[in-house]
């Protein structure tokens, strides 16, 4: 299976010309790598431009809404699918915190993504205080159970589970690989109970949190991650290209 190298541009950059420059800067590495599936999730305003030059890079959105109609400011899952998006990030910790997204809303978004054949990049993770109190697994269990409620056995293996400990995001404080390995085992164990045994090998778990060109390889070789979700470094074409080459 190819390693998933996913760039989350968050609310960056300021102009379309800059977005095109960053995107063009990573195209060669994405094209050359036979072992990486490169996915870029820009702000919605740049989707059209990037979709027109995507090459072998897949495009994803950073959020979605499960309905159309009188919902000012929202962009629906169907609209994203119709544009040509293949993936969508759901439940990023910044949205859980700043936009007060609940597990129930995240569940609706995940169901709607799957119904519209978009692959959900489903984010979970504990904050510093929860980690210090030893609550990591309890938090993850709750986020996963409530986030994938009512999703069929057949659809659960289509979800990409992105473990992003909040204390590691944007801090340079990336998580040790032995901890990530334990989290991987925990998630696999939890999900295995919800799906057919034959599908357990299809579960995809990726890591995010201060990923860079130096630490990526260890997440693949030591922590057995299926990919990485990259914030800050995905806006730096040289760094991000090195991350792609680590696959
Ligand atoms: C993220 O926001 O998903 C993320 C992992 O950010 P960073 O790589 O900057 O820590």
**For the residues shown, what is the average pLDDT?**
97
- CA-based gyration radius: 17 Å
User: Approximately how much helix is present in the residues?
Assistant: 25-40%
What's the count of strands? Answer: 8
- Identify the overall geometry: globular
Task: Give me the strand/helix succession.
Answer: EHEHEHEHHEHHEHEHEH
Strand content range: 15-25%
Low-confidence stretches: none
**Helix segment tally:** 10
Record the strand order, biggest sheet: 1-2-3-4-5-6-7-8
Distance between the termini: 11 Å
Tell me about the largest β-sheet: 8 strands, parallel, barrel
Sheet/helix structural class: alpha/beta
The hetero molecules present are: phosphoenolpyruvate
Tell me what the structure shows.
- With 247 residues, the chain is of the alpha/beta class.
- It is built from ten helices and eight strands.
- It has helices at 16-32, 47-52, 77-83, 93-98, 103-115, 128-132, 136-147, 177-192, 216-221, 237-245; strands at 3-8, 36-41, 58-61, 87-90, 119-124, 160-163, 204-208, 227-230.
- Strands 1-2-3-4-5-6-7-8 form an eight-stranded parallel β-barrel, surrounded by four helices.
- α7 (136-147) packs parallel to α8 (177-192).
- The chain is globular.
- 43% of the residues are buried.
- The model has no long low-confidence stretch (mean pLDDT 97).
- The structure holds phosphoenolpyruvate.
